[in-house]
Amino acid sequence: MNRRSFLWQGLCSSLPFFARSSFSEQVAALPFSKLSDADLTTFARGLTGTVFRPGDPKYEQLRKGYAAKFDAHPELVVHPVNPKDIQATLSFASSNHLPLAVRCGGHSYAGYSTCQGGLVVDMSGFRNIAIAGDKSHARVGGGMLCGAVEIETAKAGVAAVLGQCPSVGVGGFLLGGGVGPLMSKYGLGCDNILAAELVLADGRQVKASPKENPDLYWPSVEAAAILGSSLNSMWHCIPSRKFSRVTSRLSQRTRASFCRRSRNSFLGRRRS
To answer: Which secondary-structure segment (H or E) carries 255?
Structure first.
């Protein structure tokens, strides 16, 4: 399966789903088991990471994303710190028929960063990056934010195709294709992913690349939230010497004049 056929088949298969009602309404209508305290205790004790429930001190902070209109209250927010935690979490959610949401930065304006009455996997425990010795690529953890990736690659004298908002997670950035200021020359963010390591929905940990599990390669780049959780991905790096930087220093009066002219120009276009 190539990229074009994957996107087309995904679009066609999702149309009936969205025609009936919104994603949030569909998820809220799903039946799921009532969790017992004993089951939750056993699950939490089996993790190296942390489980947060309603009433816990950090729960209110963790359940919220950037899109305030999705005021969901998940039954659990899980903070995994290794692949085994993710495997156990996916198994627990499946066994108890829980709606599942994977969160990287929490910026999903469609509400995919959370779910009502389900389980949210908070990937912030996977915020790590390692740049190859030859600086040709970087291995980026599944919980990294775009701003942090930009800072670390700049230190090494390279750049990656990223977006413009530093608090957006790399997972959500790629799920949107990866639109950013470098795409006109170097392609979308998803075009610059060389490989990805995933935990699939059935618990298997696999690597996807053009040569290894190629049938999972494009889905892992563009639909990791459907397949499972992305542990890390390998990004192509671009030498910084290929870019130019221009710095302008403007007086306060000049800045004010520039802002007024920009505003008037924008309003003029809107009226026309």
So the answer is: helix 252-271
